[in-house]
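#lab-general

N.A. 3:47 PM
ok so I finally got the sequence cleaned up, no stray characters, all 412 residues accounted for. can someone with queue access submit it? mine expired

B.Y. 3:52 PM
send it over

N.A. 3:53 PM
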Amino acid sequence: MKTTFLDRRAAWIGAALIALAGVIFWSLNSARAADKKAPRATPPVQVTTIAVKPQDVPMYRSGIGTAAASATVTVKARIDGQLDELGFTEGQDVTVGQVLARIDPRTLRAQLAQVQAQKAKDMAQLANARTDLQRYTTLIAEDAATKQQFDTQKALVAQLEAATQTDDAQINFAQVQLGFTTITAPMSGRAGAHLVDPGNIVHAADANGIVVINKIDPISVVFTVPEEAFQAINNALNTSHQPLAVEAYARDGNELLGKGKLVLLNNQIDTTNGTIQVKGSFANPQHRLWPGEFVNVRLIIGVRQHALTVPAAAVQRGQDGTYAYVVNDDGKTVRNQPISVAIIQDGIAVIDKGLAPGQRVVLDGQYKLRPGAQIVESAPRPGGGGGGHWRGGGGGVSAPAADSSAQQSSKG
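B.Y. 4:20 PM
back already:
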């Protein structure tokens, strides 16, 4: 009897456990079915949007250039002699005609005095010969002198006249040589370091000279562009009534150093590296550009008027081409809008087609989006302002990029 009771008790406990398990299983299945019948709503994606804006966008070709003096003169001695003094301060501006140096003039003054004395002697002899010629003229009229004596005296007068002309030439030469002892600036510009000290003997054949003067206002900037840019630049030159604008920026930043104009598109493409040399001229009154300085250069070849622009970050690329996420009219959902990009430069994309002014596109948060997704603006930007590189409604861009030419599409 005892064993039978225990067996029944075990059977009851097993049946209770099976019933409990069934209840739990049924509860779980009911909960899952409820979840399937009532799925949770997907939260909206936080994004940043910006308005499509028309603005004038400058079209340019860029490169790395070197500032160079617009004119350079090495001031040299034109005669041999001892350098007495210098008349300029190193590193300061000099003006045309300013005395830069003086050479000991004593030897040349003595030579000038010598030829002046020789002329005085020849003039005295000429005066006496002319007097004798007058006498012979009178005597030959009275038949008191022969014609041979008259002709001889006449030839002597002509000889002495030629001698005085030679004296004049020698005097002029001596005066010119004496003038070379005072060395003046042949042009205005900035003087460099003096290359010889007073007390040294200088020679006309010296290679280094006394000082180098660079004309740095205006100043030139020489740079190269790829040969692929030649046609665009040449077309701009042929169609523009004004010289093409050139801008120079600091090599290590975005600081605009000067605005100038194109003065040279070289007459030959360098076949060794496939580039063509270009030169711009810049007014430089504040000397912000300095000879030998490396700068980033832009050659403006035109302006795209009223171009539709968005920040480059808004442009997405897929298997079917470029597109942007455009906010629908309800302001709560987005769609995938194919677009055609004409050019991207300095963080700005110029749109040929696919967008309209005023449309809002997603600038940040695209990686979470899909067509039809709901969105919420995470950081509204008054007036459609974008990131720090975005100049909405402005007149172009200002930050240089050394490789911006590579960013430009062929449509630019």
